[in-house]
Amino acid sequence: MKKTQELSSFFYSQYFAEGIRITLGTIIPVVVCALLGEFLMGTFISLGALIIGLSDTPGAPRHRKWGMFYCTVISIITILVTALANDYLYLMTVVIALFSFILCMFSVFNARAATVGMMGILIMLINIDAQFSFEQEMQYLGLFIIGALWYMLISFSLMRVRPYRLAQQELSETIVQVADYLRLKANFYDLRKEADENYLKLIEKQIGVNEHQENTRDILFQSKRSIKDTTKEGRYLTLIFNEMVDLFEQSMTTHYDYSEIRTKYADSGILEEIKSIIDKIAHELDHFAYKLHANKRPQALYDYEHEIEHLRISIEKYDSANNVNSIPLKKIVINIRTITKHVRNVFKYAVFEAGDVTKEEILQSNKFINRDILNWQNFKDNLSLQSSVFRHALRMAIVLSSTYFLFNFFNYSSFTTYWILLTILVILKPGFGLTKERNLQRLVGTIIGGIIGGIILFTVPDVMVRFVILIVFFLIAYSLFRVNYIMAVIFMTPYVLIMLSFTGVNTLEMAKERILDTFIGGSIAFISSYIIFPNWESFQIRKNMHSLLVANYKYLAQAILLLSDKKISVIEYKLARKEVYIASANMGSTFQRLLTEPKWRQKNTKDVNRFVILNHIFSSYTATLLTQIYNTDYQYYTNEHIKLLTKSLGYLESAIAEIESPEYAKIEYVKSVEKNHSEENNEDTILITEQLQFLAKISGDLQKNVSTLASKEI
After folding, report:
1. Given pLDDT bands bounded at 50, 70 and 90, which one contains residue 354?
2. Helix/strand/coil for 158
3. Spatial contact of 662 and 545, defined as CB atoms under 8 Å apart
4. Residue 275, CA distances (Å) to 185, 307, 318, 334, 614 in order
5. How many CB atoms are closer than 10 A to CB 633?
6. Rounded distance between C-alpha atoms, residue 617 and residue 556, angstroms
7. Which residue of 246, 331, 544, 552 is most buried, as measured by CB atoms within 10 A?
């Protein structure tokens, strides 16, 4: 995608739309009240809109509405309790500890609940040590509620006026992620790219694709309007989403022994052709995503038939010249042709040449949606030091309450205390690696933003110009919070300084204090993540390895069941594959965070890295195999294939047994196949044999890798 398109695509994105919503909800009350001579009133209304706006994360309309409602209720309760306890240091310390713990535990439910909990803690910190009487606090609570209702009015109105816009934006993001994934796949055919490094990037990108697919599915299929609607737009988005899911799944199956392919065909020139076609498909998807973002009708950039045919002829010439039969390359061509078919379908839907979305398709998609929104049993199950969420909640409660107590005991200014507590809240994360990363981003962003703010205050004396700059910075900051945190802080810091300049404070001194407070808060957060119930990623490795091995076992076991003539629906197959994606994403994320921890905690990283790569190769080969089983006549499968499959499953069973713990759920192993197959050989059976031999080799390597890790007591 061109840089100009990337920039304009951002302005069409959900992130910028979110920034506009929050800016409108926050700035308009301040402007209106300032014109009426009630600036302070406007700030409290604005605060209500800001807190509820930050809780309004993307998702199904119903979930967004309930999220904002719960955020409002929790904020009201928090403000009331804070107002009652404010005059009593010891009581307020207990309130901070109790509320911080409970609200942090909300993250056991889902990401939206975690955000609502964060907003509850934030509004508590904003209201501690407020120099107002209880009656005034109640008045300001009323203004806060007005601000919350004002933002909800804006958000609900936009949902009704443009009900599909968020789904459209999230779908565009999904397509961009899939395009990036294809580019990484293309790199396997580039001899200059290192394969192992590319595997890690591929796994990381797969996590991004999965997240955006889940968000899009949630928005599209949990909306009553989407389910009941028969408009072209509703069908259009649903069909494109289904097509992109199929395209991504097809790209997952284009997996072969890349080391062997690179060695065999390095000098043929064919690998360069394959990479070129895949890169063009990725560029085509970027182009489509941009047009979808911009609400414009896209037109295809390439006609792939000529290039695919040229690639096919090149392979035939190579085979003829070397007297070989390059079956893997021919399979790659078939897969590329299938992917381009999905791309053509997407463009066909863009001109509404599409049929209806059936009720069955929607019901099937609903099976992929996670519905345990408020599972209180999950809350109870996490009340243990074995839970990373519980440890984080305890850490947050201890750090916030003790910091508040000590700074007030020694009579530090309330604003300094508030800023330090706010810094701790924002920086302190469940894992050490995330805390370390956020700490650095916050400090660097504050320093750079403070310098920018100081320059603006010295060079721009005009109040109206400053106010315009303030609005622009506010909009950019809240548009970037979920995209680029350090850039969001860079724009947020001068916004705060410009706003404070309107109150008459010495902004230069204030900038110095904010940088110092950020450093103090960041240091407290960093040290506490190191010594107070630390949650090292190495604690999670064993559990995540077990989950991933079990998911891969259940995925591959479907091949045995299918070849035994057992009935397995496509939905069961896709659900099993989804479990592999989720487990793989969790394992990949854990490993990436492990690399950010202190060196003395980074144990067995080479072996863990190998485990991650081997599992990715294994699941990709399993996807290839299962696709073939679904699309190939069973007569091509032989008893040798069954033996190789059983051998692979046996290796996985051994690997699972190596790291099994009593608290892990037991799984039911597949023992035998009840049907005999032929012993005939042809091109298809030879290719399947080669793939199954490689699968058995990978599973054997995987078992040895797990055995090595288990012996080192991971």
Report:
1. very low
2. helix
3. no
4. 8, 12, 17, 15, 23
5. 7
6. 13
7. 552
Instruction: Map tokens 């408009």 to a residue.
Output: 231
Which tens digit of pLDDT belongs to each residue from 73-115? Answer: 999 999 999 988 888 889 999 999 999 999 999 988 888 899 9
Measured distance CA(271)–CA(261) in Å, rounded: 9
Phi, psi (deg, nearest 5) at residue 136: -65, -40
* DSSP-assigned letter for residue 276: H
Report the C-alpha gap between 66 and 109 in whole angstroms: 14
**Residues sharing a CB contact under 8 Å with residue 346, sequence separation 6 or more, in sequence order:** 240, 243, 244, 247, 288
Distance of CA 664 to the CA centre of its chain: 26
What pLDDT does residue 227 have? 46
Interaxial angle between packed helices 432-459 and 414-427, expressed in degrees from 0 to 180 and rounded to the nearest 10: 130
Distance CA 86, CA 128 (A): 6
Beta strand ranges found along 606-690 (DSSP E): none
By C-alpha distance, which of 25, 47, 27 is closest to 498? 27
* Beta carbons within 10 angstroms of residue 153's beta carbon: 12
Tokens of 465: 């110009």
pLDDT score, position 196: 76
Residues in the chain, total: 714
* Separation CA 696–CA 536 (nearest Å): 33
CA distance 592 to 209: 17
Q: What mean pLDDT comes out for the span 345-374?
A: 57
Q: Which burial class, exposed, middle or buried, applies to 460 when counting CB atoms under 10 A from its CB (0-12, 13-18, 19+)?
A: middle
Six-digit token pair at 393? 């909640």
Please state, in angstroms and rounded to a whole number, the distance separating the CA atoms of residues 115 and 131: 28
pTM: 0.82
| CA–CA gap between residue 274 and residue 263 (Å, rounded) | 15
Contact (Cβ atoms closer than 8 angstroms) between residue 49 and residue 104: no
Q: Which helix (H) or strand (E) holds 200?
A: helix 195-221
